[in-house]
Specification:
The chain is of the alpha+beta class and 275 residues long. It folds into 2 domains: 10-160, Jelly Rolls (Sandwich); 168-270, Homeodomain-like (Arc Repressor Mutant, subunit A). Helix content is 42%, strand content 17%. It has helices spanning 118-133, 139-160, 168-179, 187-194, 198-209, 213-231, 236-242, 248-259, 263-270, and strands at residues 22-30, 46-54, 57-61, 64-68, 72-76, 85-86, 93-100, 112-114. The strands form 2 sheets. The protein has a 5-stranded antiparallel sheet with strand order 1-7-2-5-8, with helices on one face. Strand 3 (57-61) and strand 4 form a beta hairpin. The longest helix has 22 residues, at 139-160.
Length: 275
């Protein structure tokens, strides 16, 4: 049976992805102390995923050995090799999945990602192994679940890496804004955080991010407001204050101008499902 899951992930470099045909193997692999593994070459029509749960190893990638640690997510396609070296004193452990995927002609998912919620990694490992060895459990459902979880984590990781070339001072400024979203934020304050003059701050924002400091602050405030609107029952006034607006009227005006809908209507549509 060929089930298809088509996901629009082009903003992170992913293409529409069909669900693999079949889940053929799952295991929690423990490399032996004092020995390196024998890497497996991924065959045509096959995908192998290794999710590190402990220890340390290395994988051959782009003509060099790349270190892999707990949380590393390796998505191997035909022609790739699985992990080829291990720390002899701290051997790696990984959740290993083998999936059959006929007609696979190109890499659709970046090979290396990272999942930094180690408890979630351990929980998925336990669930995957337990359900796979349970003969009464629907393997097609298990495939959908695991594939979606891993794909989601890979997408999140690469989405967060979308601006890796930002200058360090700009990264500091963005972190400062996110951590002080409910406080008054001025260009002079942001320039101080960056160690720049105000004109240079504006020039760098325009050059690197294509916007002004004010517009970036407003964007982050309103995105945080959207999150609160659909995840809490706080009042509109409370959410406006919590995201740095000094009055409900200015919050509602900015929200409507940015999203062409009032905060209340946005909440009713996305939180309560009203049309």
């Amino acid at each position: 049976m060929q089930d298809s899951v088509h996901l629009s992930l082009s903003s992170s470099g992913f293409s529409a992805l069909p669900l693999p045909n079949r889940l053929t193997a799952i295991g929690h692999f423990h490399q032996t102390y004092g020995h390196h593994p024998t890497p497996s070459l991924v065959a045509e029509g096959c995908e192998i995923v290794e999710l590190l749960t402990g220890g340390r190893g290395w994988v051959w990638h782009e003509e060099k050995w790349v270190e892999v640690i707990p949380g590393t997510l390796l998505w191997h396609f035909p022609g790739d090799e699985t992990i080829g070296r291990s720390d002899l004193d701290n051997p790696y452990r990984c959740l290993a999945l083998r999936m059959e995927c006929q007609g696979l002609s190109e890499r659709r998912i970046p090979r290396i990602s990272f999942w930094n919620d180690f408890e979630a990694v351990r929980q998925l490992t336990r669930e995957a192994v337990q359900c796979f060895v349970d003969d009464s459990f629907d393997k097609s459902m298990l495939l959908q679940y695991i594939f979606s979880r891993l794909l989601f984590q890979a997408t999140c990781y690469h989405h967060r890496q979308e601006a890796p070339s930002l200058p360090v001072p700009l990264k500091k400024v963005l972190t400062y804004i996110a951590e002080n979203i409910d406080q008054p934020i001025t260009s002079h304050g942001l320039a101080h955080v960056a160690g720049w003059s105000v004109p240079h701050l504006h020039d760098q924002f325009k050059k690197v991010m294509g916007t002004s400091p004010h517009q970036q602050v407003l964007k982050l405030r309103l995105n945080k407001a959207r999150e609160l609107l659909v995840s809490t029952d706080h009042s509109i006034k409370h959410i406006g204050l919590a995201t740095g607006f000094n009055a409900s009227a200015s919050f509602c005006q900015s929200f409507r101008k940015w999203f062409s809908v009032s905060p209340g209507k946005y909440r009713r549509h996305y939180f309560y499902g009203e049309r």
